[in-house]
Amino acid sequence: MKKLFPIQHVMGYLFSLILSVVALSVILWDMSVALGLTILLICAAVQMSVQLFMFMHIGENKSKTALYTNLGYALLVGLITIFGTLFTMIWGYQIK
Amino acid sequence: MKLDNTLPMEYRSEENSNRILGFWLFLGAEIVLFSTLFAVYLTLWTRTGSGPDAKEIFEIGPVLIETFLLLTSSFTCGLAVHSMRLGLKKPSMVFFGITLLLGLGFLGVEIMEFVTYVNEGATLQTSAFLSSLFVLLGTHGLHVLMGLLWGGGLMLQIRREGYTLETSNKSFIFSLYWHFLDVVWIFIFSFVYLKGLM
């Protein structure tokens, strides 16, 4: 039974539950939007890493350089899309 | 066929590792797809017109249930791959089965949530906020539904053939897909629900 539940997976699962609760704190306590968003960003980024490294085993693939490059590129395009859109559609209007 | 027996079965042939690499490339495209939907949502989420805003319709209870179901299903999916690598067919099938049931539970809660919204007069046509919300959540939900059909078919095949070079490869790729959906959900949970309720 014990070998069916490797410690790495169990820790990853517990860790992701804890991170969700930490993220939940932004609506439980009064805090500034900037602080709230920072907490959310950090929690989401760490959660993503837990999935990538502990569950998706990205590091064990022999073509891992290609995987990291692809993932980095996809994230870059995604972030440029999101922040570029916010910049042109929302923030841009506020810069006087 | 050249086989490298030092590797887990799903990577063992060259075709198998190429398939895994190919699937990672696909996931890169999926990241970009969801980024565009997030960009639209984050631009339009304050444009509520005469409809309700995020604080009025979001309820944290069902969202927490969805998050818990999906995180747990991602965990059991990881355990399924782990048992598969140990060559334990039955525990692996059980873990995949639990994964799919949790996914089904997630989808059920999400559908109930959509029905509640529509009953409150918050439909796809009500406002830009709701259009972008339903498209983002709906695209994720559709992916989960596809995962359920895919995983169901996969389980039938594993039951029939056991873990072969092909089925272990397919199972691993399915697990990549499932974990990816969990990652997308984490971002929806954080930047749609929690941010909306902040």
Query: Greatest chain-chain interface?
Result: A-B, 48 and 51 residues
Stretches with pLDDT under 50, minimum 5 residues of chain B:
none
**Gross morphology of chain B:** elongated
Structural class of chain A: mainly alpha
Relative helix content of chain A: over 70%
Helical percentage of chain B: over 70%
Please count the beta strands of chain A (DSSP E, at least 2 residues each).
0
Q: In what range is the share of β-strand residues of chain B?
A: under 5%
Number of domains of chain A: 2
**What is the radius of gyration of chain B?**
19 Å
CATH topology of chain B: Four Helix Bundle (Hemerythrin (Met), subunit A)
CATH superfamily of chain B: Cytochrome c oxidase, subunit III, four-helix bundle
Please tally the β strands of chain B and state the result.
0
Tell me what the CATH architecture of chain B is: Up-down Bundle
Overall pLDDT of chain A, averaged?
A: 90
Number of helices of chain A: 3
- What distance separates the N and C termini of chain B? 57 Å
Task: Count every helix of chain B, treating DSSP H or I runs of 4 or more residues as helices.
Answer: 6
Output the radius of gyration of chain A.
Answer: 18 Å
Biggest sheet architecture of chain A: none
